[in-house]
Queue: 3 jobs
Job 1
Amino acid sequence: MEQILSILVRNQPGVLMRVSGMFSRRGFNIDSLAVGITQNPEFSRMTVTMKADELTIVQVCKQLEKLVEVESVKVLPPKASAKRSMVMVKVHAGEKRLELLRLADVFRAHAVDVTGESLTFLATGVDDKLNAFVEVMRPYGILEMVQTGLVALERGDTHMSVEKSRYEWPNASGTKSVGV
Amino acid sequence: MQMTGAEVMVRCLAEEGVSTVFGYPGGAILPFYDALRESEIQHILVAHEQGAAHAADGFARASGKVGVCIATSGPGATNLITGLATAFLDSIPVVAITGQVPTVMIGRDAFQEVDITGIAMPITKHNFLVKDPAHLAQTLRLAFQMAKTGRPGPVLVDVPRDVQTALVDYQEAVLPPVVEDEPTSEEIAAAIEAISKAERPVMLIGGGVISADAEYDAMHLCEKLHIPVVSTLMGLGAISAYRSLFLGMTGLHGHERANNAVKEADLILAVGTRFNDRVTGERKTYNENKVIIHLDIDPAELDKNIFSTLGISANMNKTLQLIEAGSEPHDLSGWWERIESWPSMDEDFGDEEAPEFFKALNPVIKDKDYIITTDVGQHQMWAAQHLRIQFARQWITSGGLGTMGFGLPAAMGAQLARPKSRVISLSGDGGFKMTGSELFTIASYKLPVTAIVFNNSGLGMIRQLQTVQFAKRFTACEFPGYVDFVKYGEAFGVKGEHVTTPEELAKAVEKAMELDEPYIIEVTVNPKNMVLPMVMPGAGIGDYVKFKE
């Protein structure tokens, strides 16, 4: 089944490679991945979607937690989470400009670029909706498209946080360790 | 205090109590070597960086301390990789320090530049590229802490040349300790109850018992409850092979009694083992009709290979002590009768000659402070089956990665870690040729390592596998030429002798143990010898291959 993993990592060079490397090395397949900095620039948050049964996802979480730069891992509850990904589609418009704009409106997609020949739409939502949007655009001639990974946050007041790192990491302001 | 990055590196090694490092210089690490010159730390100049990594590993296995190896950028660093992977697969605390091209050159494919942190990523617990000299000290402290805490493992620190020469402020410091979890009272109660109900319990001991220094806790528990004990290859020595509770090694070349006990057990108390495929054989049937209690410091090992009934990831000593304190022995006489009906580890499975060489060494090594290192292949399995290892950290072998060429450099590291002990390195002729150049290092530093080379003029384990799996279509398992290993030793000023019988071998080793210098013994072995018993990979444990060459 589709699982959504939210991973808080230290925002350090190479951390994406370590996390993605763990997935490929251990034979787990990532369906989508989104990475960005958090309110605290020391940490980034990764959202990974993958197909996995309950036993596999537990093992994935444990292998992630084993990476020393991973501070916190959570499997988000699919129904109790807000989820979005984004797609941009550049489609051949030709004579059908108005028709395309009306169709895009059905999906609440916005035109972000217009030329004499093409329209570029931006749509947000979950996969089903975005796939449907792309399929509707396809007959007109998609020139190119790009899609982000899913981002998600659990609904309600619960939130992931890092109270204390396992290790005292070096940082620009010098060491935090106790002098002797 | 202002000093160069290189001086900071040396100070940090001193902070960690490092007495010996193994390394090989090169352009990008020279500032560090210049600073090392001024320190008390002993530097062992190896013949090849792989030897440095294995020696640091052997040092760590013999002492329980962190082993340190040094290499330059590019080829120096890549030569460490097999050694680091060996340490990673066996969870051995090693810190590797590599030089790197100056930060401004990184990414330009400079001379001797390689992305060593990228290469080492899947075979180190963690690694660092230090670009900011201000982070150097804290990074090195962190590297040592990561290497030795939790599940130990190798950590690599890559230091660009300009970071080594930069002036930085240094202050001695200690990191706050990493505290291991303690088991919960519910976990302990559940373990105690399951063990009290077991009619056919077996304790399975792995290398994690040794790395946690928990061998006494494990022994006290099994002795109090009178539970039979089996060991993995990595766990040998955690409980003395002479103890009556010890049934032998379990696994694909395990002892019959040990494997049968695992097969028929209704409870396995697995301590510090990760249920490697060489231990379990067929995974799907391994835990059928069994309660599995799995203790491991790494939570990711629980339910990875074998699903456990109860998994506890916490301080090993504390967990074993609490289980022991809350447990009472119950009658296992029926189980012991059944166990004793199976052939003991002293009974032969076949009538091969080679095991006799190993059995002949037992009276020589018994109760002595001798460390045994092995290479990989037939001699390793014969040693595991037939040598009677008595103490934790007496047995040093590449279990997980199965690295040929490990034994001799590891022996060098072990000898430096424990100068009062005597180290016996066991190799085949194949593995010895891979890293035998470290005999030069051993000779140069006059380390009293005794190197025994079992020479069957070929690759015995390959021959055995081709016998079993490829209908004796032998290929690439016989060496086209002959090497006289005693003469090879002579080239470095190492004395030695050839032996052909078990009695001669025992005498030669006895003699070597009287000497205070390295010694090489070449043992002629018939290439037709097989390691028996043998379970095919993927077959059930105890389902032995029935064949006779």
Note: The domain at 2-76 of chain A is CATH 3.30.70.260 (Alpha-Beta Plaits).
Job 2
Amino acid sequence: MNVIETENLSKSYGKGSTKVDALKDVTLSIGQGEFVAVVGASGSGKSTLLHMLGGLDRPTSGRVMIDGENLYELKEKERAVFRRRKIGFIFQSYNLIPVLSVEENIRLPLLLDHREPDKAYVNDLIRTLGLDERRKHLPSELSGGQQQRVAIGRALAYRPAIVLADEPTGNLDTANGREVLELLKLAVRRFHQTVIVITHDMNIASEADRVLRLQDGRLIADTRGGMRP
Amino acid sequence: MKGYGFLAGRYLKQQRRRSILTVLGILMSVALISALGTMGQALKDNVLLQQIDENGSFHFGYSKPAPDLYRKLEDSALIDKVGAVRTGAGTPLGPNDTVFVQEVNEDALEIMPIHLASGSLPGSPDEVAAEEWIVPRLPGKPKLGDEVTLTAPNGKPHAYRLVGILRNDRSSQISRSAKAVTLMADADPARSEDASGHVQLFATFKKGVDISSRLAEFAKLGDPFITNGRVLALMGESQDNGLNRTLNVIFGTLVGLVVLSTIAVIYNAFHISVLERIRQFGLLRTIGATPRQIRNLVLREATMLALIGIPLGLAIGWGGLWLTLWLMIQGGFRILQMDDFRLTFHWWIMGLSVGVSIASIYLAAWLPARKASRVSPVEATKGAGSIVRESYRRLRIPSLLGLLGVEGRMAANNIRRNRTKFRITTFSIVISVMLFIVFHYFTQQAFDMTVDRTENDKIAFTIAQTIVKVRSEDGKTPADRVSDIVSPGTMDRIAKLPGVDAAYGRYEMPSSTAIVPESVVNPDFSRKMKFHFTEVNFQGTQAQQISAVLQLYDEARLAKAEQWLESGTADPAELAAEDGVLIVQTVKPYNPDSKKRELLPLTRYKVGDRLTLQFGESASEPSTARQVKIAGILSQSPFDSAYQPDALYVIGTKSTMAKLLQAVPAEKRPMGTALMGVDVALKDGADAQPVREVLEQIAADIPGGQLINVVDRQKEERQFAVQMKIFVYGFLAIIGLIGSLNIVNTVQTNLLLRRREFGLLQAVGMTMGQIRKMATAEGVWFGVIGGFWGLLLGTALSWFLFSQLSRVQGIPFDFPWSGAAIASAYALGVGLLSVQGPLRRMAKANLIEELREDA
């Protein structure tokens, strides 16, 4: 069953002579539980694709269907709520709220929904992420790897169907990067989530179920079963 | 922990410094608005009370009522109180004084200006209360409780018991006819069998009656019909509602300005805090916060700040006023008005202040909140704390800052790089400068208009002498027969009494006219006032004959004249040496076209000009004319009324005047230059009692001498002025603070937001010194631009206020130089100083660190 489908997805910035096509006619579908890596040179449109899939930015043309729902037919508010419940984001620069503790950062998506979090699940998540000792700490008191784990925790807090990660290991050393990758893979297995990772790291790409390669905004390769460097 | 709302509190806590600054801004604005409102109302209440104090609280009256009118008024459903006053025969006391007993009914005791100083008001027709100054002269020198026989209004003697002493009235002392009141025996004054004497009726409307619309129907009931015009005007009940409207416009403008600056402070604070958190808002959006949730988050922050700032502001505004009053009372100020200031707590002012503050806070937070809600989630994915991307606008005109080298050029570019930020920073400074100029201007004008007009306001006692027998039957009493009322030694003794500021001599000068050459007369005067002076030909010169008010000033008076000196000298020795005079040529006539009194020069004399004074009947007769040299020009008269309506005010020393008087026939200058009286001015806060005792002694030794005592009234007036000054400067200080807070907030955050950029500049080789120079240039330039516009708008608004003020009283528009100078210096100073703090902090931190990716 396909969780994500895109049809002729295009995005361009600017007008006239300064027009840049970041994404051109990308059509793809991703099934549930897939671990997908997106690779490509800088400026090839990886991040733009991820933003489109997560409903962060509007495509110029084409559409994105998530769980059978056209993401860009939703109103701004509905899309925000949709994102809150269905999609988890992880960024290269961890993007934690500096004034909230580890636990609060993880629970934030639930809090936005005024929902009492499933305590057992959140505790399980925090333990799995190895952050049990750091619950009450502020992001500034954590190492980079720990911060990224908090970000993963936040992305998984709502048990979203899809996790979108933009170079999650880009700022981390090899050991920490490895750890983050393992956690993401664990998530796919344990919660049957779909994970899409943008990466420059060929090690990550090699472990993915599927690798999408972008060049100049076009999808030029879609390899299943991992990719050798 | 449920919901995301707690985030607002966390953010405020994290940005503690700015939160505190913002709360301070709100607090001071609320304090200022509520205090301004309270003061405005108190001022109005005060003026009203003062008028009621002087004229009584009655609304209208009849000086010759028909016999049945009292009944009619009593029966009217609209009328609250009907006061009846019967006046008639008086009791002569000694050669000069008379006391008039007035019979009044109980209502009249309330609504007429009858003020008890001690004892009690008369409770029966056999009790009497008399003015303080006359009590010792009453037959038998009665004490409170003693019997005294006085002539009743019906002309028959009546034995009264003295139960009360009334406050002195200046006019009754001068006319030497004292007032005493007793209770009217008959319930209906008109029906009294013993109806001799003259009855007047005074009435007040019931509460809630629309006075102005009902007045006409009562006017028909009797003629002459009297209204208590000034009191009604202050109550907002007169046809001519100018004063009320003017007060409202002025206080409205001031409150409006304070509100604007509040909005600027809060907008600034929120705008900057939102800009700083763009990425975090983006992040909240990626994890599913709706725009509305983010907007509410910002508005919630505003609410929290308002919840802290507004109650504190109200408390401080009210508490500050109260404390100031309390301190003044502790400092020896004890006046009638004070109590009234303390009592005027108006809930509506507090409510309105809260309403206005809340509205301005939300108005100010709304735009930043909307901006935050519109942050695109994509922002979150951009590099952390990125060098803010802004739509940079190239300058068309090279800025003056370019002269400062590369740092200056960069500063010029930095200032213009973000139009919104530029506008909001400039706006803050403009508002602050404007507020200061306008407030400064307004208060100065208000002072000029209401208080401390002349040195007369400080005079508490006057020793005077009633000259009954100056002229003998044959009219030949030589002038030199009149001698000084007191010796120079006594004058000196009075001046040196503890608590006495000065003792001024009073002299009587004959009337005179000035022969003013055509070219020196201001033609505007005749044109505007439709008033023509007599044309004369004096020794071949075409001239106009203008009244001259001659005044002999002793050294004490001349010393006070100094402060109004526009040009020349007021030195007594110099004046005497060259027979020089001081003149006031500014007059304040009534302009029939604009229907107000207008200030303008009557003549255009300059220091050194010669002034021809004519003392004779014939204007062109040289033998009765004298010439004096104009040694100095004063902007207003130092004593008595500040301006004449259409006459020159000529001041000379004793020797000069003595020479001038030789031109006057002896019978027309009976007093010569003899000292006729002594005015005694007290120092601020001095105890009047010991001075009064000494002066009474001196006055008692003078035949026909008496002491006119206005110390209480004078003290009240003067302290009211001091009090106003304290309040006004308090307000000015707070306004300055709000303004600086605003500027500091904007300029500082402008810099702090660019830490990364400064890091980058250091990385490419800019020294901290250069960065400092650049940032300082930015701060100062903001001060220059803001100061310029503030000056322009401030002057314009001052002019508007002036046009409002001049409805009440014609005054010339003075450019608000002092306010402008202070405000400009202040804008520059704050601009310069506000960048130093963040720069110092940046110099300590390693800015290159900022370049590193941070969370």
Note: Chain B touches chain A at residues 1-4, 7, 10-11, 13-14, 279-280, 283-293, 376-378, 380-381, 383-384, 853-855 (CB under 8 Å).
Job 3
Amino acid sequence: MSYCLRNSFLLLLVALSGLACKSPEAIKHEQYVIAGAELYAKHCSNCHGNEGQGLGKLYPPIKGSDFLENKNKVICIIKNGSNGTVVVNGVSYEGKMPKNKKLFDLDIAQITTFIYDKWSGEKITTQTEEVTRIKCD
Amino acid sequence: MKKLLFTITILTGLSISIWSCGDSNRTLPYLGQNTIGPNGDTIYHQIPDFTFVNQDGDTLTQEFFKGKIYIADFFFTTCPTICPIMKTQMLRIHEKFENEPGLRILSHTIDPRHDSVAVLKKYKDKLGVKDNQWQFVTGEQEKIYEIAQKSYMVSALEDSTAVEEGGFVHSGAFVLVDQNRRIRGVYDGTKEIEVNKLIKDIELLLKK
């Protein structure tokens, strides 16, 4: 019994040290990814799909999309919507993407962080201030 | 001894009931307002004759679906909410049964003012649907709403207060209709699990 207890204690210690080793930045990144995933499911996945696969030539994919090469463009399109043709991986997508007035800059930062974490494997957190300051044409 | 007999009986009963739950013996219900005819027979709810115009500008009637099973749904091309999910799911069905001559799909627009023949044609192409199995139809708004509500028993109506939904309120249902124009199932076309069930039910109906 004492052996078992000691083992559990050791395990707990290992788990705790694991937590403690995470930098505040890494913890913030994780929080943004989790919150961003929820926001994505609510506001984006209807059209762009649960797995970012898009839908035919009606809605562009996010996963594997060359659009991700320009993060400013990504933030701007979430912020302001788009009203013209968008070219993704050589395919033109017409129609408009609505601007969502309910999204705060923090939400957009979280969605962007989630998208890049999931589909680019990027561990850089998009900061709210970046979204606020960004200049879109 | 009595106890043993009892156990055996229970076990036999159980195994029979489990065995009969197998997919091959499963039957689908007849949905809708069934009535009793003069001879005492049940008259099942049926989809009446209809005339719409498809994405190629051709007239489409019940004749196109004669002797086939089909799935009906209601949508509009500019719908920002559930339609893309419905179309993602319907595409799964279409791709799974691509070469199945016994199955067809009928998508009605509930916004015929915007969704003209040309708009539907473009939508079908962009969705990547190349063959005739999946038809997109438009027509008189009244007729579409009437067949939705009275025959397929799903909701479809214009509602200018439903701004976020794009000005229309409609159900995301996929309605399964058999070879004799009777409704055999209604599924939530926005849920993958429900559509998995629909795929199973299609296979069941195709076997008969």
Note: The domain at 22-133 of chain A is CATH 1.10.760.10 (Cytochrome Bc1 Complex; Chain D, domain 2).
